[in-house]
Amino acid sequence: MSDTRRRVKVYTLNEDRQWDDRGTGHVSSTFVERLKGISLLVRAESDGSLLLESKINPNTAYQKQQDTLIVWSEAENYDLALSFQEKAGCDEIWEKICQVQGKDPALEITQDPIDESEEERLEELPETSHLVELPHCELSRLEEMADLVTSVLSSPIRREKLALALMSEGYIKKLLGLFQVCEDLDNREGLHHLYEIVRGVLFLNKAALFEVMFSDDCIMDVVGCLEYDPALVQPKRHREFLTKTAKFKEVIPITDSELRQKIHQTYRVQYIQDIILPTPSVFEENFLSTLTSFIFFNKVEIVSMLQEDEKFLTEVFAQLTDEATEASKRRELVNFFKEFCAFSQTLQPQNRDAFFKTLANLGILPALEIVMGMDDLQVRAAATDIFSYLVEFSPSMVREFVMQEPQQTDDDVLLINVVIKQMICDSDPELGGAVQLMGLLRTLIDPENMLAPINKTEKTEFLSFFYKYCMHVLTAPLLANTAHDKDSKDLLESPVKINPVCPDNFQTAQLLALILELLTFCVEHHTYHIKTYIMNKDLLRRVLLLMNSKHTFLALCALRFMRRIIGLKDEYYNRYIIKGNLFEPVINALLDNGTRYNLLNSAVIELFEFIKVEDVKSLIAHIVDNFYKALESIEYVQTFKGLKGRYEQEKDRQSQRLNRYRRDARSMDEDEEMWFNDDEDDEEGESVEKNRTEDDFSDSYGKYMEAKKGAANGSNGANSNGKAAAVPPAPPAATPSVNTSASSAKTTALPATPLGKTGLVGLVDYPDDEDEDEEDEEEEQSPRKRPRLGS
To answer: With 210 labelled, which of 12, 416, 433, 661 sits at a CA distance of 20 to 30 A?
Structure first.
């Protein structure tokens, strides 16, 4: 069997019953040894990789739809589709499938999968029962026909037989002829039967029947039949809506009659699925899968046909950006583009990329700048939807456009500033539009999607641009609502708690919460830029004023902003917080909250718990030194006692480190002095003796040495007395241990020391005593220095 290669797109049906594109390639049918049979192979046109390898099983139901589609199920929840570029290619592959299965290529479906129990049941039935015999198309037999259609829905094989019978005898058009007769006669019973029949035929889920039912000469009669639901007292007026209320608006005349027909058909079929047919139950949701596919592929075809018509899109953009265009006309153009972009979501990825690049080249972003600044709320909402499609598709494309805009003296003309102002000025009490725009802004300033390999400076350049030209617009409402002046301070100090900087307006509070959420995102993802901005604007102080708001969610947003800053464990931020005493509003909010166990209470305690666990020393010292008296009464958590404990541990550690340094320095002096030469000993002896009486220095050198020997061999009391006369008493905790260690060291050294050096050992006591004097002085001064060391 020779290979027949045709260009196709491979689709799979996902869990949401939407078709996912798996790639474009060329299909062939060939024998695969591994699979032991004729198989369908699709190789990608880009790199030749295998997109699909599927054996044509004799029992698999293959379905041909719309002349260019072949659909089948590989497993219970795995549906596949091949969309052919040419009808001829689809016909050839279909013939191969039918040849393998021994079916007539004229059929639109080879067979339906049936379970073993149904197979066994069918084998027991006589062959004549496999045929579905349709009653004659007469008014008197409508009830019989309705019962037949309803009865076959539970059996896949009988649904298939009924569909074949309806197709072969042209039965659909005969039924629709009876509908016109019943309506003329106002035969309600017949109309109710026709409703059941048409609804059941739709649930047969056959594309070939849809092609007939949704054709121009039949679809309105199908809608008419579906108006007469027996459960309704009065019939709906769907045809009146479709023909009179729903108007087809051509922003630019569409000359292609096939495209016009496809647009009309898609709208009406979508209306049938969404409005007329009841929501399918869990057991019926698969009955209309082919109808969903029918709409999906129609939309793909519409977008492709419009995109290929260059004159049409060029004319649309020309009118959209023309200042002379009337407001109503521009509104229609924007709504057209909104629908156009929504339809584009059905395209496969590479085609969707080409679609948005085409829009960008034609100037969609400059056009959005114009329409997003208009007063018409509908136009702004539609423009926001289009902008969201563009940002979702390519944030880098939007950023590149913004940075290439001419830098004018007025920053308001920048697209991002237009978006920010629309967010700030959202008139919706629930700020639905503002929430959407805030999400788009966050996507644009997210460094995670600034990964363009060609231009690696995108992150730096765009963030510098944003903080220079746009950040002041974003923070303007926040700064305006937290402005300080003398009057506000007087009000805050008054006995009645009035907060002039935190408006009671719920909508304003919501807006400030959105801005804080975006700023919190910046703290987490922008390091240098946001840090510089916070310091220059003293932003955290202004934000913490919102801790006084009566809206708890806003106070929590302000607290979350501070929590993100502290969570960075950046000493630059920590010094800023300490210098500004910025814990005060947080602690005041905790104390004002009282004993209420709520989210604000938990969030504040979590903040201090983080500082304790992470052992942020500078903040712990600041909190304990300044606020512990106010916090020590809070005992239902151990957080604040833990902070105090950390603080005391650090003080002890600092004290031990200083003492260790002093002892090490003294031992070094002793070692060095033991190795001094005689001349240095003499000089040291003279310098020490100057602290004694002047009579010692007038004696001869021999008497001097004898006096030294006497001092060395004498009791330690003389030294103690001499020291007591010169220096105030040392702290009892430190001095005894130092003297004890020194004396023990000297005692063990004396026997091993030569006689001539005996005087040197005695002399060492004097400079050592001087070190102890200095230590005593430092011990007295250290309590005054500790707060500064801890800070």
So the answer is: 12
The first and second tokens of residue 59, run together, are: 């029992």
Question: Do the beta carbons of residue 251 and residue 336 sit within 8 Å?
Answer: yes
Prediction pTM value: 0.60
pLDDT for 762 beyond 90: no
**pLDDT score, position 111:** 67
With CA atoms as reference, report the closest residue to 8 among 69, 96, 58, 91: 69
Question: What's the token pair of residue 487?
Answer: 């009057």
Query: Where would I find the H helices in 675-734?
Result: 678-689, 694-697, 701-713, 717-726
| Lowest model confidence (mean pLDDT) among 516-525, 537-546, 722-731 | 722-731
Question: Which H or E run includes 540?
Answer: helix 539-544
Q: Which two tokens stand for residue 197?
A: 């029949």
Quote the DSSP letter at residue 731: P
**SS3 labels along 141-188:** HHHHHHHHHHHHCCCHHHHHHHHHHHHHCCHHHHHHHHHHHHHHHCCH
With H, G, I as helix, E, B as strand and everything else as coil, classify residue 370. helix
What residues does 11 pair with on adjacent strands?
Answer: 21, 81
Mean per-residue pLDDT, 708-728: 42
**Lowest mean per-residue pLDDT among 414-423, 528-537, 740-749:** 740-749
- Number of Cβ within 10 Å of residue 476's Cβ equals 14
Integer Cα distance of 516 and 508 in angstroms:
12
> Residue 500 and residue 492: Cα distance in Å, rounded?
8
Say how far apart CA 220 and CA 660 lie, in whole Å: 97
- What pLDDT score does 699 carry? 46
DSSP 282-317: TTTTTTTHHHHHHHHHHHHHHHHHHHH-HHHHHHHH
Tell me how far apart the alpha carbons of residues 118 and 458 are, in angstroms, rounded to a whole number.
63
From residue 618, give the alpha-carbon distance in Å to each of 560, 629, 650. Answer: 20, 18, 11
Q: How far apart are CA 229 and CA 526, in angstroms?
A: 60
Q: What is the mean pLDDT of residues 439-445?
A: 93
Of 476, 542, 483, nearest to 515 by C-alpha is: 476
Cβ atoms of 580 and 541 within 8 Å: the answer is: yes
Rounded to 5°, the CA angle 277-283-286 comes to 65
Tokens encoding 603: 């969030």
- Could you read off the pLDDT of 127-180 as tens digits, one per residue? 334 457 888 888 899 999 999 998 888 778 888 888 888 887 788 999 999 999
CA–CA separation, 88 and 94 (whole Å): 10
User: Has residue 438 got a pLDDT over 90?
Assistant: yes
The residues that bridge with 7 in the sheet, in sequence order, are: 26
> How many residues in total does the chain contain?
791
In this model, does residue 1 exceed pLDDT 50? Answer: no
Asked whether 440 and 398 are in contact (CB, 8 A), the reply is no
User: Do 295 and 315 touch, CB atoms closer than 8 A?
Assistant: no
Dump pLDDT digits (tens) for 378-409.
888 888 999 999 998 888 888 888 888 765 54
In which residue are the tokens 């009579």 written? 695
Q: Alpha-carbon distance 403 to 442, whole Å?
A: 17
In one-letter notation, the amino acid at residue 316 is: V
Q: How far apart are CA 505 and CA 754, in angstroms?
A: 93
pLDDT for 115 beyond 50: no
Sole residue written with tokens 């102080």: 541
Which range of 260-269, 300-309, 664-673 scores highest in mean pLDDT? It is 260-269
> 673: burial class by Cβ within 10 Å (0-12, 13-18, 19+)?
middle
